[in-house]
Amino acid sequence: MLELHGVAAGYGQVKVLRGVDFRAEPGRVTCVMGRNGAGKTTLMKAIMGLIPVRAGRIELDGVALQGLPAHRIPTHGLAWVPQGRRLFGEMSVAENLEVGGLLRGNRPQARAQVLSLFPRLTERLKQRADTLSGGEQQMLAIARALCLEPRVLLLDEPTEGLQPSMIVAIREVVLRLKSEGVAVVLVEQRVEAVRSMADTVAFMLQGRVVETVAAGKLTPDAPQFVRYVGV
Questions:
Q1: What is the pLDDT of residue 105?
Q2: Full-model pTM
């Protein structure tokens, strides 16, 4: 289980996270929602060690992660797909996957498992990443992260700007990962996507998780969506 207790973090003198308490359990999808500037992406970066944690604890199954250098965090079983994908555009699909699997020795079984989730990528292994469609690039970004064989997968707005068929494909992958026991942390603004994937929704406001609700209790017009997300 991934747990945050009283986490504070930010950039220079700017405080963004102000005592965040949060948890993500294996085999469950935990969605993080909030307006722009609420601290969602900063939360992801703090978990991955990309910005220093000024106070509080980040633990995975009781092992403290705060203070570890960023390159050590994935060795504990965490992977992050940032908003914007950040692929190696001049490299092929296969080469991007190899980069993702370096930490685990690029096990053939792991790559085969990843490609079974994204069969479209199998047809494009030799193609340059920057020539893929937007949806295919998002698939590759997720596939690259999964080559780490993570126990916890962080996804930052994975459906942003995608056509409906691609959104459905990504949702199916998220639900399959959930069934395999992966803890998925999903930053998402689309109410429909959240209600179709999440088990729990954590709403952020001004750098804090202010309310956590079972997704099944949230109707499309739930007041939390208006209060914290503005939709």
A1: 73
A2: 0.92
